[in-house]
Design a protein that fits this description.
Elements lengths: L1 E5 L4 H12 L3 E8 L6 H12 L4 E6 L22 H6 L9 H16 L3 E3 L15 H14 L1 H4 L6 E3 L7 H11 L23 H13 L9
Parallel strand pairs: 1-2, 1-4, 2-3, 4-5
Helix pairs in contact: 1-7, 7-8
């Protein structure tokens, strides 16, 4: 069985890839160079794909800086030091407009080429920053659209399922699952605003949520030992 696995190089997407492999899928990992300021994650994605035995790993190059309007693709400061209340109060400026829709559309195209029925994405609806394209209702809607949108689907050669094994897990649960599945945490990268050497800032929402997950799981984060 073939599956497309969206792989950013972060904790969640790496654990999602490992979960897909456990389920017996031949995983075709797909990453994006979209003009993100934290492009060091692409190096992590390459290493994670290799370590977890992806059948193939490709990087699609698109430039979302042409639209901007996000702290990840524009000259906007990445929020630092926010508590959980602040993270959940409103959709943050690190939200990249329509990013998961764009990424899933690319994954759908590759799935059609490979005649794969399954697309894995490591979205999470519990410990996250309130992004609208991480919600279960969004995933269900994209899945419905996927089965109307492709030649392979209309001809009955594929029946797309968008798989989200992490969607109802806390960050601590994801860390525990990743440890169980042998995810190489030391290769992953989660920070939105790393320094020139690629080291995590430790204060952006993504860093804080990652730290919370490892802390609550009772597991040391090997990235902090670099």
């Amino acid at each position: 069985m073939k599956a497309i696995c969206l792989l950013s190089g972060g904790l969640d997407s790496a654990t999602c890839l490992a979960a897909a492999r456990l389920d017996g899928f031949d995983c075709y990992a797909l990453s994006f160079d979209y003009g993100q300021r934290h492009r060091v994650e692409l190096d992590s994605a390459e290493q994670v794909a290799s370590a977890l035995g992806a059948a193939d790993h490709r990087v699609a190059r698109i430039d979302l800086r042409v639209f901007g309007h996000s702290a990840l693709t524009d000259e906007i400061a990445v929020p630092k030091g926010r508590d959980e209340w602040a993270m959940n109060r409103e959709i943050p400026v690190t939200y990249v407009p329509a990013r998961n829709t764009i990424f899933l559309a690319f994954a759908l195209a590759w799935a059609e080429v490979l005649e794969a029925n399954d697309i894995f994405i490591g979205v999470n609806a519990l410990d996250y920053s309130g992004y609208p394209d991480c919600r279960p209702e969004y995933i269900r809607a994209f899945e419905r659209m996927s089965n109307l949108a492709t030649k392979a689907g209309v001809e009955g050669r594929t029946r797309i399922a968008i798989r989200t094994p992490l969607i109802q897990l806390s960050k601590a649960d994801i860390v525990r699952l990743g440890q169980k599945l042998g995810v190489p945490f030391e290769l992953t990268h989660s920070c939105y605003d790393p320094d020139p050497a690629g080291r995590a800032c430790g204060a952006c929402d993504s860093c804080l949520l990652r730290a919370k997950g490892f802390r609550e799981a009772g597991i040391a984060d090997p990235v902090l030992a670099r």
